[in-house]
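Sample A.
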Amino acid sequence: MTDDKRLEQLLSIYNYILIQTNGDVEETLEWLRMLNEENNLFDDNLSFSDFVDELKKRGYIAEKEGLLQLTAKGEQRIRLDALNHIFSGLKPDTTGFHETNKTGNGVEKMSELKKYKFGDQVTNIDLTSTIKNAFLKTDLNNFRLEEEDIEVFETEHQTTVATVLMIDISHSMILYGEDRITPAKEVALALSELILSRFPKDKLDVIVFGDDAKEISLRDLPFLSVGPYHTNTKAGLRLARNILKRKGTTNKQIFMITDGKPSAIFTDDGRLYKNSFGLDPRIVNKTLDEAVACRKDRIKITTFMIAQDYYLRNFIEDFTKANNGSAYYSGLDKLGQFIFTDYLKSRRKYN
C-alpha cells in the first residue's frame, strides 16, 4: 500500500470515529492512539504526530482555546467520506438513478451554449454553431466535423425535490448496547453531501425528534447525540410538514429514521403526555392524524425502521396506509443503501 493510500485509509477511520464521538476531535484522536497500540496503525513513515499535522495542514482541524476542533472543511470531509462509504455498497445499477436520458418538462433548454461533453443529449445540439465551427477550420470541399466543433444548449432542471430528514434521538437509539445513532448520522451526512454536490437545487432540511422536535443545521450533524427522551413522532412530522409548506417546489417528501413506536405527544394545553408501554391509542391516533395531514399536503413519508419488533410492524403498516407512503425495515448496515436508492429513485420519478 502506498503512503497516500494509507493516509486516506487512516483519514476514513478517523472520520468514522469522529461521527461516533459526536465531532469531538480530542476524543477521536485518543481513540486512534488506543487503536494504534493494538493494531500498529502508525510507523516511522507516518507517525501519529505526522497524521495530526496532516489534519491541520489540510485544514480539517484547528486549535482553538487550547483544544483541537473540527473546521468547516473537516465537516465537509466527513460528509464526503460518508457519501463514498454508502455509495461503495450500492449495486452498480443503482448509481445511475440520478441520471436519465429522458427529456421532458423537467428540463428547459436555455439560450447559453457550451462545448459538447460525453453524456449531453444530442437533441440539445445547436446545429448552426456546430457547422459554423467546422467551416472555420475547413472548407466546403474538405468538410470535416470533429467532436470539439459540437456545441450544445445549456439545460436547466426545473424540477427540484424538497426533503426533510427526520432522525429519532430518543434513548432507545443507544439502548441495549446497540449504537443506532451513528449509522443514522452517517446517512444524514452523506445525503447532505450528495444533494450539495450533485443536486444543488434540491433542498434538504434535517430535524431531530425526541420529547419534542427541532430543526438543526447541516453543520450540527457531526455533533448530534441522543438524550433521555421519549419518541414524539407527531411533533417531528408536524415540524417537517411546516418546513415543507414553506418550500416553493411541488415535490416534497419526508425521510424518517426511527427505531421505535411513538411514545409521546403534546396535549392541547402544552403538556407532554408520554407512555412507553405498548402502543398507546391516544398517541398512535394523533400520530396517524399527522400522517394524514402530510398526505393532504401531498407530502410523502418514507419510514426507515431500524427495528424488527412484530407489534411495530402493525403500527408502521397503519402509518404507511394513512399517508400512502412507503416503509423499509432495515438493518443498520444497510440503512444508507436503502435511503440512497430510494432518494435517487424518487428524483428519477420526479424528472
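Sample B.
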Amino acid sequence: MAKEVVIIGGGIGGIYVLRNLLAKKGEVKEGMHLTLIKREKSGWVSVCGLPYALRGWYEIDRTEINKPQFFLDQGVDFRTETEVVQISVEESMVTLDTSEVLRYDYLVIATGRKPSVPAVVGEAKLEGVYTFNNEDDARKIEAAMNAEGVKNAFVRGRGINGLQAAVAFATKGLQTTLLGGPPSLLPSCLDPDMGDMLKEWLEKQGIRFILERKLLTALKGDGGRLKSVVVGDEEIPADIAVIAVGADPNTELASNAGIDTGEYGGIVTDKGMHVQRSGCSINNVCALGDCVEVIDGVTHCSRLSQYASTVVVQAKVIADNILGEVTARPGLYASYEPCISPSVADIGGLLVGSVGVTSEAAAMAGIKTVSGKATKLTKARYFPGAKPLTLKLIFDAYTTKLIGAQMVGESTVAERVNELAVAIYAGITAKELRNMERCYDPSLSLLIDVTIDAAELALGITPVY
C-alpha cells in the first residue's frame, strides 16, 4: 500500500518538503501519495519577493512561482483554500474544515507564523490598517497605497517587513513615518552602530523615524477609514498603516494535539525535526519553518529563526528522514544542526547582511566579546562602480573565534554573509581571518580586504592602509 504523506501548510517549508519528496518519489517501491493542504488560493508564492513588488520592481503575480496545477499534474493532492482543524496523533489522522478525515503515515506541520497585532489596532477596526505577512496582505497594501487621495503612511515596526513597507511608501511619494523603539533598526540582526547607518540612509529618502519609548496609543478614523495615528501625545496624519511588530509561531493546531511548544511559543523538535509530546519524539510527525524553535549555533539556546535560509535546510532533513524510512535506506537519515541564520536584504538600495549573534545577544548569553569594524571600497578606487562597505566582526573574547558578522553597503554583501557563515561553522579565529589568503583583482576586490582590517581591529592591531 502506498505511503500517505500529509503536509499542512503551503509556504516555503511545506513546498520544499513536497519538492524534495517528489524528486525521489520513484524510489519508493510501494508508492508514496502526497497531499498538501493550504488555506491560500495560490500555489507556491515567494513571500520574500513581495516587498520588492510593492516597490514597483515587478507585479505581485510574478511571485507565484508555481500554480496549483503544476503540482496536481505531478500527482499531488494539492488542496488550496482548505484548512486542517484538528490533528489526532494517536490515530494518525487529520480533520479538515470540510469535515473530511485524512489518514497519514507521515505528517509534516508547516503552519508558519501569524502577525502580532497590538490591542489598540484590533480595537480600532478601521480600513487602511494592514499587517504584512503574506500575498493577500501585499495585494491589500498595494491597492491602498495606489488609491486616490492617499498621501500619508505610517509603519509600526523596525524589522525587515516594516522597513520594506516604509521604503515602498516612500518610493511611491507618500509622507512616511515609522515608529520603532530604541536604540536603532533591525536589532535582531544589527548592533546599534550598524543600524544607525541604515537609518541615516533611509532618512535621506524622506522616511521619518520615531525610535523612542513611545506607544501607539490610538488610531483615528473618519467614516470607518484611517485618518491619523496617535503616538505618545503626537497625532500623525496617516491614510494607510502597516503593523509589522513581529510574528508569532502559528502553533494552535499543534498545541491542541498535545504537541510540545517551547519558551518562544514554537514547536519543539528533535534533531530529526520530529515533534515531541511530553518530551518524547513522535517519529511520524515532523515540523519545520516559522512555527518551530531552533537551537542557536553560537549560544546553544533555544530561539526562533524565521528565515527562508533556515527552512530549506530543515525541509531537506525531513524529506531525507521520511525517504530513509520508506525505502529502508539508513544512509539517507539526516539531522538538523544548530543554526546561525544568515540573512540579507535590499532595503531602499542599501544591502544589509548578518550572520551569527549580535553583541547584545552574545551578552545576554553570557558571552564576552571583542569586535572590529572597518569601512573600505569593494574594489580598487580607480575602477568605476567602487562602493564602500562597512563590516563588523564579533569574536568570542577568550577564544577569538568568529561568532557574528554584520555588514552594510551597496554590493558584495550576500557572498560575504555566506563566506562568514562558513567561518563561524568552522570556528575560524580572528588571527586566522587576518592571515588568510584572499583572491585579488583590482576590478573585483582589494588586495587588503575589509575583512582583514576588521579582524585586525578586533585584535587591537592598527591596519596598514
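B remarks: The chain has a mean pLDDT of 95. The longest helix spans residues 308-327.
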